[in-house]
Every structure is written in C-alpha cells, then in structure tokens.
C-alpha cells in the first residue's frame, strides 16, 4: 500500500472555474493484484474539455484527465516496473491501473521512444491535442495546396499544430490569438497573417487577411466570432468544428444569427470532430507528428506549472489565455 494525492471536485462549476472548485485529498493505493500495476505521475495535462466534462461530475469525485506516469509496482509483465505509460487515470499523483477495467475510458498506451525529448510531448504535440489537430484538420477540412486556412485559438495546443500542418500542406494560413506575444510566436512558426482578436474587429481583420475568402476554417473558439467567419468563406469551403472554448463558461451558446444561410448557399462542408472517435488512427497520426517534430517541421511550446498541488491553478488559467501551446503540470 502506498499513499497518493488526488484532486476532487469541491463544488459544482458556476461560470468561470476558480481554485475553490477543487479540493486536495490523500488516497491509499492498494498493492496491485494479478494483471494490475501502480504508477506515479510524471506530468499531467489540463484541457479546456475538462470544464464541460466535469460539469456534471459529482462533488467529491476525482477529476478526469490524462497523465504520463511511471510504473512503480507491477503484477503485469506487459507493464514492468520503470515502464512509462499514459492513460486517463485522473488528477492523481499515484494510481492503481487495471488495463482490463473500462479500457475505453482508460485509453492506456505505452509512451513511444521520444529520442530524448521530454515525455510531456506525449500529452501535447504528439498526444491528444496534436492528434486532434492532425486528424480534425486533414480529415474534415481536406486541405489542398493554395487554400486559405483560418485557425482560431491559433496559439493553443491544437491551433498551433493545425496552422503548422496547413503550412506543411502548402496552404496560406491565418491565425487569431489573444496577445501580441502569441501572435509574434505564430509569425515565427510561419503563419502568413496573424491578428489579436481582442484588438481588431473580426470582419476588418478577415477582409485584410483573406480578400479572396477562406477555404478552410478550423474553429477552436465557437460563439459569435465563429458565426461571423462564415460570411468570409468561399463556396464549397470546409469547416471543422473542433472546440468552442468561448462558450464553455457561459452555460449556453450566445444568441447569434443562424449560420445556415451561409452553409446552404455556399455549399459549405461543416463537421464536428471528437478525438475519441478516432482511436484507430491515433498511432499512425502520432508517428507522423513525431517525424515532423524530429525533422524540425513542427515546433511546439509548453506552458509548464511545477507541482501536483498546482493542477487547479493551471486549469483555471486556461480560460484567461495564460498558456501558449500545451499547458502541462510536471510533478
Ligand atoms: N474536438 C476534440 O476532440 C477536441 C480535442 C482537444 C481540444 N478540443 C477543443 O479545442 C479547443 C482548443 O483546445 P486546446 O487544448 O488547444 O486549448 P488551449 O488553446 O491550449 O487553451 C485555451 C486557449 O483558448 C483561448 N481562449 C480562452 N478563452 C477564450 C475565449 N473566450 N475566446 C477566445 N479564445 C479563448 C486562450 O488563448 P487566447 O489568449 O488566444 O485567447 C487559451 O490560451 C478547445 O475548445 C478544446 O475544448 C477539442
């Protein structure tokens, strides 16, 4: 039996999450039985989806989420002591893992050989967010060389990868983000046009950035701004509805005029994307992303909080734009 720590929901979310929504508890982790193993967290991810995923969660329940961890005790020869794994074992410093118990929710994977790179990239650029960018953009937007692509939330974990993949595919890429520093970083990644959505009127920015219209729109933000973009789409444009972070804390979608006239008249292809539908393509996508990282074609940034006790602080600050690239908590 070993001792661990875990973060539980202290009270239900109302509007913006705050640190008061979370409570740290101690847990006793039983010794593994046959087939099980115990892990110690190395790094954990906080993600915007947790706000909506946890909304219906019971008070007192350990919060959901993925982590990279090291096996410290094992009764499973496939996962020996010392192995580095990743799985959705929640906001826990130590976990008892049974690979056979609810494998769809656990999503247990061995961390691949990263050639000396920090294992946190298994949660970011070649992890859930990187693969979301890869598959959401390539499968839904079907980009062609020469297309004009708009990415919202472009300096985040998903958006920064979408924009770089669009460049690799020969597209002209426009990115929106919430600060000058983030816009400068996007320029350094090769984005053709960037704007700070807090400083400019969206219609003016898009008229300047895409005078001939937008062919592909990868949206991370949702709400009224996403609706306004449809006015600037070209006929037969494609939109991946990948996220709607601007609406996660409002409780309801802000009232916007119906987008359907544009979708109909311009024959737009609009598709929602949920990464958890795409497990069968995860591994091949990750392999390609890691190849691009190693070739220097795909760059990444991480905003790192140190210490398991800082999980809520890291999560809460996602909604004020404190991260560039992937937000990671290192233990
Ligand atoms: N479909 C899927 O399967 C899937 C998978 C992963 C993620 N997602 C979604 O994809 C989106 C991006 O995820 P991520 O991991 O890349 O997050 P992230 O960008 O790393 O973090 C959130 C960023 O969103 C921006 N933001 C926060 N509130 C905003 C608002 N009200 N309006 C506009 N921008 C706002 C902030 O950047 P600024 O400083 O630029 O405002 C913040 O840094 C999220 O909506 C997430 O839920 C979906």
Query: Taking all residues together, what is the mean pLDDT?
Result: 95
The coarse silhouette is: globular
Distance between the termini: 20 Å
How many independent structural domains? 2
Structural class: alpha/beta
Report strand %: 25-35%
CATH superfamily of the largest domain: Medium-chain alcohol dehydrogenases, catalytic domain
Can you summarize the main beta sheet?
7 strands, mixed
Task: Give, in order, the helices and strands.
Answer: EEEHEEEHEHEHEHEHEHEHEHEHE
Tally of contiguous helical segments: 10
Number of strands: 15
CATH architecture annotation of the largest domain = Alpha-Beta Complex
Distinct compounds present: NADP nicotinamide-adenine-dinucleotide phosphate
Round the Cα radius of gyration to an integer and report it.
20 Å
> Uncertain spans, ≥5 residues at pLDDT below 50?
none
Share of helix, binned:
25-40%
CATH fold naming of the largest domain: Quinone Oxidoreductase, Chain A, domain 1
Write down the CATH class of the largest domain: Alpha Beta
Description:
The protein is an alpha/beta fold. It folds into 2 domains: 2-124 and 301-330, Medium-chain alcohol dehydrogenases, catalytic domain (Quinone Oxidoreductase, Chain A, domain 1); 128-275, NAD(P)-binding Rossmann-like Domain (Rossmann fold), CATH 3.40.50. The protein is built from 10 helices and 15 strands. The chain has helices at 49-53, 103-106, 128-141, 157-168, 180-188, 202-209, 223-230, 260-265, 279-295, 311-316; strands at 2-9, 22-29, 37-45, 67-74, 84-87, 94-97, 109-110, 148-151, 172-177, 193-196, 214-219, 233-241, 269-272, 302-306, 326-330. Strands 3, 4, 5, 6, 7, 14 and 15 form a 7-stranded mixed β-sheet that branches. A 6-stranded parallel β-sheet has the order 10-9-8-11-12-13, sandwiched between helices. Helix 4 (157-168) links the parallel strand 8 (148-151) and strand 9. Helix 3 (128-141) packs across helix 4 and helix 3 crosses helix 9. The longest helix is centred in the last third of the chain and has 17 residues, at 279-295. It is globular, with a radius of gyration of 20 Å. The mean pLDDT is 95. The protein binds NADP nicotinamide-adenine-dinucleotide phosphate.
């Amino acid at each position: 039996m070993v001792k661990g720590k875990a973060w539980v929901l202290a009270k239900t979310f109302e509007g913006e999450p705050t640190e008061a929504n979370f409570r740290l508890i101690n847990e006793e982790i039983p010794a593994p039985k046959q087939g099980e193993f115990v892990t110690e967290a190395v790094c954990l991810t906080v993600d915007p989806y947790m706000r909506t995923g946890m909304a219906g969660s019971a008070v007192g329940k350990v919060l959901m989420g993925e982590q990279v961890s090291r096996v410290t005790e094992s009764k499973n020869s496939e996962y020996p002591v010392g192995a580095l794994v990743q799985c959705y074992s929640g906001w826990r410093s130590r976990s008892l893992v049974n690979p056979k118990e609810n494998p769809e929710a656990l999503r247990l994977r061995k961390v691949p050989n990263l050639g000396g790179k920090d294992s946190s990239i298994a949660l970011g650029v070649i992890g859930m967010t990187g693969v979301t960018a890869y598959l959401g953009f390539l499968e839904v937007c079907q980009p062609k060389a020469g297309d004009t692509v708009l990415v919202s939330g472009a300096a985040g974990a998903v958006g920064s990868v979408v924009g770089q993949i669009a460049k690799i595919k020969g597209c002209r890429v426009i990115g929106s983000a919430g600060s000058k520093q983030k816009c400068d970083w996007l320029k350094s990644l090769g984005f053709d046009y960037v704007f700070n959505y807090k400083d400019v009127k969206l219609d003016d920015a898009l008229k300047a950035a895409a005078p001939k219209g937008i062919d592909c729109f990868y949206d991370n933000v949702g709400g009224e701004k996403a609706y306004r973009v449809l006015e600037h789409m070209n006929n037969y444009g494609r939109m991946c509805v990948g996220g709607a972070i601007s609406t996660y804390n409002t409780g309801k979608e802000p009232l916007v005029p119906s987008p359907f006239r544009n979708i109909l008249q311009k024959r737009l292809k609009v598709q929602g994307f949920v990464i958890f539908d795409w497990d069968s393509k995860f591994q091949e996508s990750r392999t390609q992303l890691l190849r691009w990282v190693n070739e220097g074609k795909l760059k990444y940034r991480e905003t790192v909080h140190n210490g398991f006790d800082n999980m809520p602080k890291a999560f809460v600050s996602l909604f004020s734009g404190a991260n560039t690239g992937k937000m990671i908590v290192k233990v």
